[in-house]
Structure formats: C-alpha cells, structure tokens
What we know:
Two copies of one chain form a homodimer. By secondary structure, chain A is α/β, with parallel strands linked by helices.
Amino acid sequence: MSLSLKPGFSFGGVLQKLYPEENLTRQEIILENSDEYWMAQALSKSMENGCAANPNPSVGCVVVLNNKIISSGCTERWGGKHAERVAFESLKVGDLEGTTVYVTLEPCTHVGKQPPCVELFRNRGISKVVIGSEDPNPIVSGNGIQQLKEMGIECKVGVLKTEVQAWLSPFFIQQRNHRPLIALKWAQSLDGCFADDHDGWQWISGIHSRKYTHWLRQKYDAILIGVGTLLNDFPSLDVREIQNQYKRDPLKIIYDPFGKIFQCTEQEQAILTEKTFKLGTKQIILIGTQVLLDEKEKNNKWFQFLKNNENFILQKINDNSENKMTNIIVESLKCKEIDEFLGRPLQSILIEGGPRLLSLFLQEKNYDVLHVFIAPFFLGGEKNKLFSKKQRALIPYIFRDVSKVERMKIVVQERLGNDILLEMVQEN
Amino acid sequence: MSLSLKPGFSFGGVLQKLYPEENLTRQEIILENSDEYWMAQALSKSMENGCAANPNPSVGCVVVLNNKIISSGCTERWGGKHAERVAFESLKVGDLEGTTVYVTLEPCTHVGKQPPCVELFRNRGISKVVIGSEDPNPIVSGNGIQQLKEMGIECKVGVLKTEVQAWLSPFFIQQRNHRPLIALKWAQSLDGCFADDHDGWQWISGIHSRKYTHWLRQKYDAILIGVGTLLNDFPSLDVREIQNQYKRDPLKIIYDPFGKIFQCTEQEQAILTEKTFKLGTKQIILIGTQVLLDEKEKNNKWFQFLKNNENFILQKINDNSENKMTNIIVESLKCKEIDEFLGRPLQSILIEGGPRLLSLFLQEKNYDVLHVFIAPFFLGGEKNKLFSKKQRALIPYIFRDVSKVERMKIVVQERLGNDILLEMVQEN
C-alpha cells in the first residue's frame, strides 16, 4: 500500500500520501530479477565480512541460474580468497554452464596475494558477467573486462555503480587520488553546539547514535582528534557496544602541533594511560618539528615514555606554509613508517573533533564525507561549536554570504532513536 | 527485497542492510486486509478535501465487504455532509448488509449543521464498525459508540488512533485545550542561522522546501510574524506555487507590541500595500494598549488607513504581567471579534518568525509542533539565529545545561530536494 504511516502531526504524519510525490526525494525501487536486483544481492554479500579485506576491496559475487542464486562469495580477510573464487569453489564442474555471474568489481587480472580471478571464468560456459564497477587500479582497469570478452563472454558494466563505489570509497579514493578518505564526524544540537558552555563532558546525542558511532569506527583505519579534545574528554576512541566477527579498533591519531601532550600533569598522564593510551593499542602523535628539537622535552619522563613505547609513533608534521593546514596534516600521515606501523596502507581517517579541528577541515573543504548526528534541542552556547567566534579569529574564515556558500549534498538521512543522522558529501 | 539502496557513502549508502535493524527507527508495516489497512484507507480518504471542512474535523469513511471497498466518503466543506453520509448515500438499500464500516472519528450524535450521523447506521445490517478515535467533543465523546452498541453493532475503537489524531490535531487541541494549535516554522543552516549577517534577504532553503512551505500554509488558519520580519522581508505570506481545489490563504497576524508599523516611511508603506497587505486579504495587527492611547498616532494617515480598512483588525494585546509573554499573545487572539473576522474559530496558527519571536515561543515551551527545514551548509553568523546573544539578553533565558535541556521528539524526517525537513513535538 502506498500510504506510509508515521506517528506525527497532520501533514508530517502522513506526508508521503498527501504531499505531491514528485517533490520528495525517493529511494529507488528495484524490480525483482532485474540485473540491478541481483547486483544488489552481490553488494549485500560483499559486506558480509565487514572491512576485514582492507586495504583490498570487499567484493561480492553471486551466481544466478534460472532466477535463483546457486552460489555466492565475499572477499576474505586481506590476503585471502577473492569473492569470485569463494563463489565458484563450492560448485562442481559444469555447474557454471549457462549462468550469469554478478560481481561488484571487475575481476582482477594480476597476480597479487592470489592468482588472477579472471582466469576462473575461462571455459566454464558462463553466459554473461555483470559488473558493478570497473577497477580503479590502473593495472586492472578495463583489462578484466577485455579478457572476459576475449573469452567470448558477454559483459555488462556499471550496474549499481554508484552504490558499489560508495561502499568501496576508501579503496577508490586511494587508487585514484593517492590519499586516504577523509571523513568528519560530530554530534550537535539544532543550533550547532557540540556541548554546553559548562565544564565537564555530557553526551549530546542519544544511545542509538553512540552505538552507531562505535559501529562506524570499525570501518575506518584511523581516528584523528585534536590534543584539546584529548585532554578535555580523555576519549577511549575504541569500538565498544558492537559485537561481530570483524570488529577491529582503529589506529588513534592525536593532532598536537605544539606538543601540549608532553606538558600533561601526572594525574592527566594517569588518566590517559588508563583510557586513550590503553596498553596495546597503536597511536600516532602528530607534532610540530620544533617540539622534537626542544632540549627541555628530551629530559621529560613522560615524553621519553611516549617516545620509546613501541605502540606510539611521534610523527613530525611536515610543515609547508604553501599548503593548506589540513593538507599538511594529511600529507604528514602519508609515509611508509605509518603504513608499516598500521600493517597496511592508511586508507581512511575519521576525524572526530574537536570543533576547532573540524572547522578547519570544513573551511578548507578537505573532506569526502560528513557523518553528522543532530540531537533535537537548543543549547544556545558560544564555546563549543563549529565556526565559533573564537575559531573565526583563529582560522582564515571569510564571513559567509548565503549566495556564495558551499552547500553540501545530503546522501542519507536516518533516524537513530531520537536523533537524526545526516551523511553528506561535497556538492560536485 | 530488504536491501534499500540509496546513493551515498559506504555505510550510509547501504545503512539499512548492514546496520543492525533493531537500532533504526522504522516505519510500521501494515498487513493487507487488516483493520489497520482499511483504517489507513479511510484516513487517506479523509484528506481528500484538504482542510476545507475546518473547523470541523476532516473525517474519512470506507465501507468494506469481502475485502473490497464498496463505497467511501470524506467530510465536505464546513456545513456540508459528514463522511459517513457521503459514503452511504451512493449505496442502495441492503448494500450495507454484512459490511464493516471504517470511520476515522466516532460518528456524531448531535444535531449541528447536519443531522446526527450515528442514525445512518441503524437497521442497515452493518456487521461491525471500526473507529479510529473517539470524538474529543464532550457532547459526542463515547455516545456515538454507545448508541452503535445499543443498535447491536460490534464496535472496535482506537485503530490508528495516533495517526488520526495527528491529522486532526487542530480540532483535538481546540476541543480539549480551548486554544488554537501553535506551530513554529523556520529554515536554518546546520549551525542554526536563519540568514547571513549581511543586509538583504536570501533564501536559506531550496525550492522544494519553499514549495512545501506554501503547501503547509494551507493547513493553518493563520500565520503570525513579528513586525521586525515584516519590515525586513516584506513577506507575501500567501499560498503560491501550489494548485489544488482546496487552496486557501491564511489570515495574516503581525505581532507589533510597540506599534512600529505606524512609523513606516512612505516607501515602506507602498511596499507593504503591494505585498503583505495586498487588497482583500485579512490581517490582524497585534499591538500594545499603549499604542492606541497615544494621541500622536491618531493623526497619522497610515494609522488611520489601517484602522479604518475593513480588512484589518488592530487587536490590543491583552497585557497581563502574570502570564507568560507568548500566552499573552495567544490569549489576545482568542476572542469573538477575531473568530467573526475569520468566519470560523481560529483553530491553528503557524508562527513563521523572526528568530526573536520564535526563540520566545521555544523558550516558554509554547508550541505543539515544529516544522524545521535544515539546509546543509554553515553560515557562522551571529545576528539571525535562535537564541542569539542579543536574544538571550532580551528574553529570560537560562543558560542551558545538556543534562537539563528539553529534548524535542522527532516525528518526521524527510528529504525535500537537498534540505531536510524535521517535524518535532514536545517530549511528553
């Protein structure tokens, strides 16, 4: 039935029936048994192992015969089998005869940790291969499709391409732009406050939003916060409240250009050791070059502890005044040492605050996606918000004009408990 | 299929598949041919004539036999037939035999502009009557159901009660609370700005949100704005861009306690006459008692024009320092003169701004519903926002604490173009 009932006031409560349909942004409807339908199954399958395949793309594959899935697969943990291999290996010789294979990403053609997948398609009698997106890796891109065609297999490319690329965006951005994906995340009141103006920390958003945050962190290779947030909130920055087989804690990165962290009181050191710097979790402290040169620091016990602990890297900020501030931060993280420290390339960073650091990334338009939680109340505060007066004094902020402002593009709105989650990207 | 595809980034793009279902706020699914299903059809039918029945409730009725609707009706324009009469009159004697009748509101038992509907149900062989909500009118409430039972008809009451009451909320609030429904409406940036800090007016929200606003205005009996907004924006406050048979313009109310409007320049007077005060549309100017006593004003030509024009009422604000400021405003509008001026009881008011007036209503918790449009960008301004520094100085505003703040309850989130519409009510 077309009437969608929600509890609520008059129009709102029944908006979807009464308001002219063409004015609402609707989600697409996919017809059963269409190529989009089966590709959606493959995309769904591709998420089965979460981000365990990182930095490899998590690909999904379904094999369809007579409008039924006869086998399916998802890329295994990094170094493990690719989706096509998983899907095909449970089938007997001849089982692929006459099938259509749906795979979210173009099959690979090069020998990496696994032999090339495209060879799995040879002489199996497959009727058609439907591919979500070409591989952005220049070694593969187009070659997989070319080789399939040379095998005499019909190929269709680009089905649910946007959705596939969205799911694999850290991989695509790394391949195409040679940098990690940058996501900004915050929770705010309706008037843009992160907290009230009193001392002490209190949650803005509800329990559902916080749970979602933990779930979100698993996707990212690293979380970045400013040293101010670190010393105010002592956040754990780990993944809690979520249980699944592919749970993982991201690398923690602290942006601390002036080495404030080395000036901590002993009490602060104790709390940090207990919470954010828990034993065994890897951390990077991004500091200015000057800090390391300072003789005074070298005798500081706490500094020596952080410097000599194998769970820490004190990474110098690669200062270059010609570059944007936030580019300097990102560039400082692009190095072999950090990739080795993480055990794989750093493909995505979730920046969680505080408001000053987030304002800077927003101001310099240095982000790929925003995760914004809006809690439905007003705080009316001045201190803890994006683009506050204080921040406008500190960063090169041009006072905005509605006609010139950069609008973001909303890609998702979702209710989490009594909060709203918006996901936004830059308007193209 | 369960995978809901939206273009977007990784989690967001496929949130509904991957994120644990139980954490998302889902809309209810209604089973086909259930009582809820047919009541939803009746509710849908009840909206057919828009708000033409005001101040009567717009009721819907469907008659079901063997899982098919054999007749249906919606309340006609005020004074016209009620929904049950419309639904039944197209049926022949005996056609109602064995049917189930779904009606959103309890059938009436009193003679008003129409004979009592409950009598239409007598001796027609109806098997069952399903009622959305009891009538809040004490003359009717429960009596209709009682009389149906005495006729030997099975009754079921309360099916989709929340949705029915939401659609009829102005009627319910008037019956139960003897006051009009108060709605606040505004469009804001992500950081709560209504406009930038430059002079001149520019739209914050996109074309879809504005279109929705026009559509929304039809529901309300009156729009209220402050004199500051009037003289800044010269808004038309009418219903444009929407075509349908029940289009109607709301009454315009200007809140102007100090009679600023009488001090307009001739140029401002000309623009007002052209735009907001267009000939033939009814207006109320809410002014302080002191203003009318001021001898100076009485010789003012513009004042005399407004005072003697039959399209205007200069309504004195019923000042009472013991009451809340916003209650004084609402109380001043509850009088016979205004009901007569409008031609029916004033059942609902949409307050459209500016930020100072809206802050006051929010601060004093004097609202039933909020319609908030959020445009996805930041302005970083100081002047045009709710609870700005200036407003906090003017109104008795206690600085907020997250733990004590009043959270609103979100009842609707909807995407309109590239804006988000939130509809919120007070948390009970």
